[in-house]
Design a protein that fits this description.
There is one protein chain. With 414 residues, the protein is an alpha+beta fold. It contains 13 helices and 17 strands. The protein is globular and about 55 Å long.
């Protein structure tokens, strides 16, 4: 059993790794170190990984019905990772979904906001249409909701206010509707701030995207989408009624569902035994208040879950409601530190991005990016050998020992 020195701090972990990939801003230097290491057999080097265009695939980040997302790195430079969203052109055409990647591309090119993922470039690779996006290394809001049995009130408020800030920008400043707002599409970055993703269904309010003209056209009265847009449990009733599918009220209803999850037990308010049962609950506005909800939250939700969209609250109504008004008035966001809540933080990777260290453990692949000049708290260099040593400990012991960084107490592996 490894005996830690004063330079190492114990962190409990259940992680096991099959492959380890190392990158450095000085690739030749890093390769030389790795080649001379006793742990060489555990390494999976860049040459064994697949590519898309000019980018090397490190790992798969996930996939949906029409897209796959990969963690990638430029073959020209190892200093930064990206999320590469890919869609098959032929598949999109067969499904009548060609407009989705154009909608997302145009939106991300034209609108920039701290709570929206950045788009760096678009390109084609064979039949693949590709969006090179900002890589957000932590998990999603959905992960937190699923893994934390009872989210602290202040944490739920912290994320609710950020989503409200996003909706205020979307609705009030640029007049758009997301139409698929849900915890799965809300990432958490290294600073525990949200980043909203998936703008393939976004629309200008009361407009519809024309693939032929490559722009938004005003919808006529009674016009509706041929297919349901959004995710069943978060869809507003008007989405199912094929009316008012193009209004901001759609997002407000979805936001109410997220509030219900964050402040309740993690379940959505209208969830049924299946999609048809859920749809029926939504159309009848059939839900029960959770016992954890205070009177202000109950009152707010009663103004969000309203079948008549003309009476449903707007984003400004929500911001000015008593439930949020005190939070904004006292400016509590400035003083809030989510790291006070270890039961929440343990489900997010703690990433020392300011110190040049990046970690990704998805699917048993542990990726580390090392910038030259990084120092430990005792002044010694942070080296590839240090990482190899830590990985060997992970593989052979139940306890992980990792050195302290100067600006971060622990590099937590979850």
């Amino acid at each position: 059993m490894f005996s830690p020195t004063k330079k190492y701090c114990p962190v409990k972990s259940k992680v096991s790794f099959q492959n380890v990939v190392f990158f450095s801003n000085s690739p030749k230097k890093a390769s030389k170190r790795i080649a001379t290491s006793k742990s060489q057999s555990s390494l999976n080097l860049l040459g064994n990984l697949k590519t898309i265009g000019d980018y090397q695939i490190i790992d798969s980040l996930g996939e949906g019905a029409f897209a796959k997302v990969y963690l990638v790195q430029s073959k020209e430079s190892y200093d930064k990772t990206y999320a590469l969203k890919t869609m098959d052109r032929n598949f999109l055409k067969a499904c009548g979904r060609q407009q989705e990647i154009l909608i997302e591309k145009d939106f991300l090119i034209n609108f920039k906001h701290p709570l929206i993922t950045d788009l760096f470039r678009t390109f084609h690779s064979g039949n693949l249409l590709c969006l090179l996006l900002e890589y957000v290394p932590n998990k999603t809001l959905e992960n937190m909701i699923e893994n934390v049995s009872q989210i602290p009130f202040d944490v739920a408020m912290y994320y609710s206010v950020q989503i409200l800030e996003f909706l205020s920008y979307l609705h009030n400043e640029i007049n758009y509707v997301h139409r698929d707002l849900k915890p799965h599409n809300i990432l958490i970055d290294e600073n525990f701030k949200i980043k909203v993703i998936d703008f393939s269904s976004v629309i200008l309010e009361n407009h519809k995207y024309s693939l032929k003209e490559r722009k938004y056209l005003k919808v006529s009265e009674g016009e509706h989408e041929e297919d349901l847009v959004g995710t069943c449990e978060y869809c507003a009733p008007e989405m199912y009624n094929e009316s008012s599918q193009f209004t901001k009220s759609n997002d407000i209803w979805a936001f109410g569902c997220i509030l219900y999850q964050l402040f309740g037990s993690g379940k959505t308010p209208f969830r049924g035994f299946n999609n048809e049962d859920t749809k029926g609950n939504i159309l009848e506005c059939d839900y029960q208040m959770h016992p954890r909800f205070n009177k202000d939250l109950q009152d707010l939700l009663s103004h969000i879950f309203v079948l008549d969209i003309s009476k449903r609250y707007t984003v400004n109504d929500i911001i000015n409601h008593k439930f949020f008004a005190d939070y904004y008035k006292n400016n509590k966001a400035k003083d809030f530190d989510i790291k006070q809540y270890p039961q929440v933080c343990k489900y997010f990777r703690e990433i020392a991005s300011s110190n040049g260290v990046e970690v990704n453990e998805d699917k048993k692949i542990f990726t580390v990016t090392i910038n030259e000049g990084i120092k430990w708290h005792d002044g010694t260099d942070f080296t590839v050998e240090d990482v190899i040593h830590t990985v060997e400990l992970i593989k052979n012991n139940d306890t992980v020992y990792t050195k302290e960084l100067s600006e971060l107490a622990l590099l937590v592996l979850i």
